[in-house]
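Researcher: Structure prediction, please.
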Amino acid sequence: MADRRVVSGQHRKDSSSTSPSSPSHSIDSSNSSLDNVSRSVPRLSVSHHDGAGVPVRDEVPLLLGEKVEAVYQDIAFLCPFSSTGTGPIRGTLTITNYRLYFRPHQRENPVILDIPLGFVARVDKVGGARTPGDNYGLEIFCKDIRNLRFALSKVDGHPRKDIFESLTANAFPLSNSGELFAYTYREQYPGNGWSVYDQTEELRRLGLPNESWAISRANEKYQLCDTYPAVVGVPAMISSEELVEVAKFRSKGRIPVLSWLHPDSLASITRCSQPLVGVAGRRCREDERLVQNIMDANAQSHRIYIYDARPKVNAVANMAKGGGYESEDSYQNAE
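Model: Predicted structure follows.
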């Protein structure tokens, strides 16, 4: 069901846009969501060679509960941002139950890939047994629009099947009889997560209760709407009995409740679902009164604006299913 907004009064909404920047060659190109975890995490030494046969040991950062599943030597990463003519970047690919970690042989300004496997959307095999050159390998499609291409050598005996199965098993654990890494990691937080957000405190921060708005506990046992908080902000003039009738008239019981209140002008934004008017054009006096009370709560406003997030054709079509939208004939001063 599309969200709907009822706006009383005028407000200005500033918006900003961000544009992605192109990755650059850096010491660490990780986008891990756990980058802010303390640097004192366990590290595992993984042996590989520098491309000339000289053994090298690098440390792979490991989180609590993270373990190395497989290590593959001399893998070629086809970096789309490499200088022309430099060719693929060769290095060691490490797969854990949490991340894909690629460390190149080059020691100067290496491009390190440190990517949580939760970012992976799809893993595809590229090329067949007779495909020449760099067209044989694996391509990893990430949810952040990155595509990682690794070229494998049939001459060197790279086990593409093993790499593919290791990646898919750890990137999609629920589809492979595994469990999400979050349940293995079990990060300990100092506080109680259930108390991070308190709806009553949030409404008090908005200035409730006041002469126009009240903090209602009509949904304390979620009897009105099981997808709303137990405590909601409603106009002070509306009664709990009227809210029960409004809930019957709104899809899934999602009555108009306060989402935001301007501290000075008292312009408000309330949120609700579609009214159940149907093709017969049903009405609910309690619902109409509630919408009127929302407008009256802002003495500076003489109109109330109802924004429907759906295309109009969808809103009209929903009338055949018992839904619909507010009619200006039924809701006075509404637009």
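Model: The first helix runs from residue 160 to 171.
Researcher: Thanks, that helps.
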